[in-house]
Amino acid sequence: MHEEQATAIATYTQQLRELMAQCTMLSIAQSAAAELWMLLQRGFGGVDMHSPYRQVCHILGMALTSQERPHAPPITKEQWQKAKELSTRIFDQYGLMYFRKPSEMQGLSDDERRRIEVTMGMFLQYLGAPPMRSEDQLLARVKALYVPFDDLLRRELGFSASDLLRLLDCIKDIVEGQFDRVVSTYHYAADCHKQFMALWNAKGWSLERTRAEAKRHPVGQAIRENMDAMQNLWRLRRADLDREVGAGVADRMLALLGTGRGLEADAYKYATDPSPAVRYPLLVLDEDALFCASHSFLYYAVELHFDPVFSRSEEAHRFFETRDTWVERRVAATFASFLGKDGTVWQGVCETSDAQFEHDVVARVGRTWLVAEVKAAPVRRSFFDPDRAFVRIRDDFRSDRGIQKAYEQGERFRHILLTSNQFRFFSTDGSLVIDQPGPAKEVFVICVTGEFWGNVAIALSLLLEKSENAPYPWAVCIDDLEAFLKGLKAWGKSPDDLFTFLRQRSTLHGRSFSEDELNIAGSFIEHGALPALPNDPKTLLLFTPENSSVFDEVFFEEQGTPLKRNRDQELQKYIRGLRDSAEQIAGYIGMSSIPSPNAKTPTVPQPPRRKVGRNAPCPCGSRRKYKRCCGG
Question: What is the spatial distance between Cα 52 and Cα 130, in angstroms, rounded to a whole number?
C-alpha cells in the first residue's frame, strides 16, 4: 500500500513543481503572502483534513525547489487554484499511508492497532494544525530560550537572537507601513473615482472625451499609486536590513535565512519535512530586494537553525535546563495565580536534603495536592514512513525527557503523599520547605510539556505504561495549561472545579477523541462537568473545536472587545464541512456510505481558532496590528 501512495506522491509532486516553474517566483510569493494574510484574518479556520497554512507553506516550498522557465509570466488565479488542488492530492496520499481500510483493520493485534492509531493521529495533527502559538507566545519563547545564549549564537552563526528580534521588528514595521499606504491610497483613489464619475455624469462626456479627461484628472495617478502600493507589499530593501542590524550581520543572516529560487529538489523531498519557505523565510529577489511572505516564518526558522547549534555545543545541557526552568516558572506562576490565597505553591521540591528526587512544581490546597513534572524538550518530527515514525514517537514518549518519565516521577511523589504520616521535603539548597503531617487526601499528577505532543498526550492509553489501578495523569502543554486555568478563573471557577476536572479527565483515556486538549477543557468550563462515559466501551466521546471557543471569548473579554458567536450556526457549518471531508476519505478507503454525524458529537474535530497576539493583524480586518486596533 505504501508503494502505491509513494508513487502517487512523487507524480503529483513533479506536476506541482512543473506548474510552479511556469510562473515567476515573485508572483507565487505574493500569492502565498496574500493567502497567508487572509488566513490570519479569519483565524486559520476551516474543516479541511489538512491545514490551509501548511498547504501554502508546501506550495511555496515547491516553488523554491523548481527552476523558473525563461520569460515566465506571473501566476494566474487559475494556476494558483490548480497548485492548491495538487497540494491537496499530495497531502491526501500521505494521509492514506496512515489510514487503513476496515478490512485491513480486522485481524490486527492490539499492538498493531495501537501503532496505527498513534501514527495516524500524529500525522493528521501535523497536516491539520495551524500555527499553534500567538505572536506574543512566539516572541516570549525567543526571549526566554535563545536570547540568553546570544554570545554562543554570535560565535557559531555570526548573529544572535537579539539581532534576529531587531530584524523582525524592522520587517513588521516596514510591512505595517506598506499596508497603511495601501489603505490610504485606496481611499484617495476611491474619492477621486467618485469625483470623476460625478463629473462624467454631469458633463455627459463621450467615451473619447472621458479618456482624455481621465488622463488629466487625479484619478489615474491615484489608481496607479494604489496599484504600486499593492505591488510593493512584503517587499524589503537590503538597505533597510543593513541599517537595522548592520551590513555584516545582515550578510550572515541572509546566508542562513535567505535563499533564491532553484534549490535542489532533495531540499524538499517530502511534505512531512519543514518547508524551505519556513527554513529560508527571506526570499532574495536580487542584490537590492528581498521578499518576506510572512514575518512569523522567522520565529519557526529560529528553532530549525538555532536548536542544532545547541545540540552539538557544550552549552546543550544548559540550554535544555533553561527550557525546563522557563516552563517550570510558568507552571508555578499559573498555579499561584489561579489558586490564590487558597493554595501554596513550591518550585523545585526534593525528597531528601541532598537534592535527590526533585519534583518540579508542587501545590497544595488543604489536603489536596498537585504535582507537576515538566518536560520541555523539543518534539522531533516524524518520519515519512509510518512504521519508522511510530518507533520515533514511542521512543521520545518514553525517554528521560518524555511524558512517561514525567509520569513516573509524579507517581512516585503521589505514592509518598498518600502513604506518609509526615511530610518533610527540601529545596535544592537543602533547606526544609515542607514539614507537616500527612497523609494527603488526594493527589493529582500533571505532566506539563513545553511543546504540543498531540494525540499521544491527549489519549495516554496509547503509549503510557502504568499499573492497572493507578489513575492516569493529565498531560498538557504549558500554553494550554495557562489558557485553561485562566479560563477557569474568568468563569469564576474554584480550585475544587479544577480537581473535579482532573478526576473526570483521568477517566477519558481510551474512551474519547479530540485532536486538541483545549476542546476537552473548554467543554468542562462551559458545562461545569465532562460528559458521562457511554455504556458501550467501544463508543467514544467526541470533542470539537466549538468546545474550545470559550478561550477565544476569555481572550477578547480581556482586551475589552467581547466576541459574539452563534454557536449553533458554527457547529452546523462545521458538521457540513465535516461530512464533505468524511465522504472524501470514505471514497478513498472504499467505504460504501457514511452515517450522518450527530449534531452533538461530530466525528473528526478540527483545530480551534487560536488566540490573537498583540502584534498580530487585527481579526476585524483593518490590517492594523491588534494592539493598535481592537486590542488598543
Answer: 8
**Distance separating alpha carbons of residues 584 and 239, to the nearest angstrom:** 49
Task: Yes or no: say if 363 and 440 are a contact pair by the CB < 8 Å rule.
Answer: no
Q: Is the Cβ–Cβ distance between 175 and 160 less than 8 Å?
A: no
Give CA–CA dist 67/455, Å, rounded: 39
- Dist CA 101 CA 590 (whole Å): 7
**pLDDT at position 36 over 50:** yes
Q: How far apart are CA 593 and CA 186, in angstroms?
A: 50
Task: Determine the 3-state secondary structure of 347 from DSSP.
Answer: strand
Q: Which residue type sits at 441?
A: K
First to last CA, the chain: 54
- Cβ atoms of 217 and 192 closer than 8 Å: yes
- In tens, the pLDDT along 247-279 reads 999 999 999 999 999 999 999 988 888 899 999
Q: What angle do CA 499, 552, 119 make, to 5 degrees?
A: 70
The residue behind cell 552563526 is: 157
- Predicted TM-score (pTM) of the model is 0.81
Mapping DSSP onto H, E and C, the string for 299-360 reads HHHHHHHHHHHHHCCCCHHHHHHHHHHHHHHHHHHHHHHHHHHHCEEEEEEECCCCCCCEEE
- Please determine, for residue 133, whether its predicted confidence score (pLDDT) is greater than 90: no
Backbone dihedral region of 351: left (phi > 0), alpha (psi from -120 to 50 degrees) or beta? alpha
Q: Which three cell numbers stand for residue 161?
A: 537572537
Question: DSSP letter at 342?
Answer: G
